[in-house]
Amino acid sequence: MISIRIIVFAKAPQPGFAKTRLIPALGAEGAAELAQKMLFNTLFEALAADIGTVELCITPKIDDVAWQDITLPLGIEITDQGKGDLGARLARASERAIENTESVLLIGTDCVEMSAALLRKAAKSMVEHDAVIHCTADGGYALLGLKHYRAALFSDIPWSTDTVACATILRIGQLGWSLHIGQVLHDVDVPQDLKYLSPTMEVV
Predict the structure, then answer these.
(1) Which of 67, 77, 123, 129 has CB atoms 3.0–4.6 Å from 51's, for a disulfide?
(2) Domains defined for the chain, CATH in brackets
(3) β-strand partners of 135
(4) What's the rounded Cα separation, in Å, for the pair 158 and 141?
C-alpha cells in the first residue's frame, strides 16, 4: 500500500459559523451540534481506516476561542487552512503533502457515508490510479485522492455549484491522469439532506 495522508477540512462547529444553511431547520445551536457530530464521526472513520496520517485542516486556527471547548481525538495532526477561497486552501494542503512524497485523500466533514471501509477502498484504488474521486449527488465531491499535484485542479473551479465534480474530472482528464470514479455519495448541507442522517447523528 502506498503512503496516504487523509486531510480532513473543517470549520469550528460554532453557532452561526458552521452548517449555516441548516439553521432554518435546526436553529444555530442545532446546526452547530450536528457539525460537531459530523466532525467527530469523520475523524473517527479516518483514524479507523488506518491507512496513514490523519490531518485536520481547520479554520479558524486551533488557538482561536472557537476551539477552546472542543476536545479533538488523539493521534491527528492539526493544521491551519490559511487564507483564500476553498480552491486555494485545498491546493495548499495537497501540495504540502505531495511534496513530502505522500499521496493524499482530501475530504470534508459533510458526508455521513464517509467510512473507514470507503477510505481504505479509495486508498487501494490509488495503487493503480493517479487520482480517485467520489462525487456527491449535488454535483460536488466528498473525496478527492491525488498522487500528484497540479494547481489547475483547484483554480477557477466554480465552488459551491453543481459543476464542481464535472470540472474537476475534466481537469484530471486534460492532465492525462488515470482516474477511478467511486460511488456517488451524499453531503448534508441543506434541510432536505437531513434524510441521509442515521438516527445516531440526528439532532433532537
Answers:
(1) 123
(2) 4-194 (3.90.550.10)
(3) 141
(4) 12
- 123-152, pLDDT tens digit by residue? 999 999 999 999 999 999 999 999 999 999
Q: How many CA atoms lie within 13 A of 86 on its CB side?
A: 17
Q: Which 3 state secondary structure label does DSSP give 78?
A: strand
- Dist. CA 148–CA 156, nearest whole Å: 19
- Pull the grid cell for residue 165: 465534480
Q: Return mean pLDDT, the chain.
A: 95
In what side-by-side order are the strands of the sheet with 4-11? 77-80, 54-59, 4-11, 103-107, 141-146, 131-135, 179-181
Provide the 8-state DSSP code for 111: B
Dihedral sign of CA atoms 60, 61, 65, 67 in order: positive
Q: Is residue 91 within 8 Å of 168, Cβ to Cβ?
A: no
- Measured CA to CA, the distance from residue 64 to residue 138 in angstroms comes to 32
Q: Over 80: is that where the pLDDT of 165 sits?
A: yes
Q: pTM of the full predicted structure?
A: 0.96
Grid cell locating 30: 442545532
φ, ψ for residue 143, nearest 5 deg? -150, 135
The answer to which of 64-73, 87-96, 119-128, 193-202 has the lowest mean pLDDT is 193-202
